[in-house]
Amino acid sequence: MKPEIFKAYNNKSFLNSHAARPIRVLCELIEPETRLKNLEIENSIVFFGSARPKDPEIAQRELNDFESENADVSPSSGDNNEEWTRLKRIVRLSKYYEEASLLAEKIALWSKGKEGPEKHFICSGGGPGIMEAANRGASNANEKSIALGISLPFEQGVNKYADPDLSFEFHYFFVRKFYFLYHAKAVFVFPGGFGTMDELFETLTLIQTNKLNKKIPIYLYGSEFWNGLINFDQFVEWGVISPKDKNLFVVVDTVEEAYNTMITDLEGSL
Q1: Among 130, 64, 61, CA closest to 98
Q2: So what CATH class is 33-54+95-269?
Q3: Which end of the chain is more exposed for a tag (fewer CB within 10 A), N or C?
């Protein structure tokens, strides 16, 4: 039997090999922009934040169910205490899910009906938590939104509120982060963990070092989280950043404040 012969670009074994990594990187760079360009997408409003918060009703129900199922056991005992503490923390964090969704919906409604350079699309990392909330808010406004997903062993694809034609699944983090900022006109950073910090500080670094040919306003949402997490004044006191670098971001606390500050900044830049 004659062996099957493949053209190089049809040889999956080769394309998935170590040697072909540059080709895979180029595919991740070129395909998303081709799709976005075909859909005439020029501007995005980016939402960063934790994958852990949930719809507040769901988070509270899960805590209530756990407490009911373990009513006869002290919450402070062993594994129960760990799970009880985790669920309480999720309830506390989940207020930001609701606020991210409301903010995304408000921005999507503001952009509704606009075209070309005036049109702005909500963009998230495509996963659960704050990312889902952002896509959900756009969906509530009957607007499409972008989901820049990433292949991870503990997350399954993009959330259900993302539009299929604007959903992507990246393998390489650095390409995904490139697309977060390539079309970004503003960035909202909600409470999050290491991934959120990575996204925030890379964005700050790119703006500080003038590696972006544009100014992107950054809004840190939730002073109770940010003020307790990072002492930005210490950066200045130790001389590792300039005092003016603190102007690269603004801390906001409500949906209205976040929305109005963004609108003022964007309309002032037009």
Answers
A1: 130
A2: alpha beta
A3: N
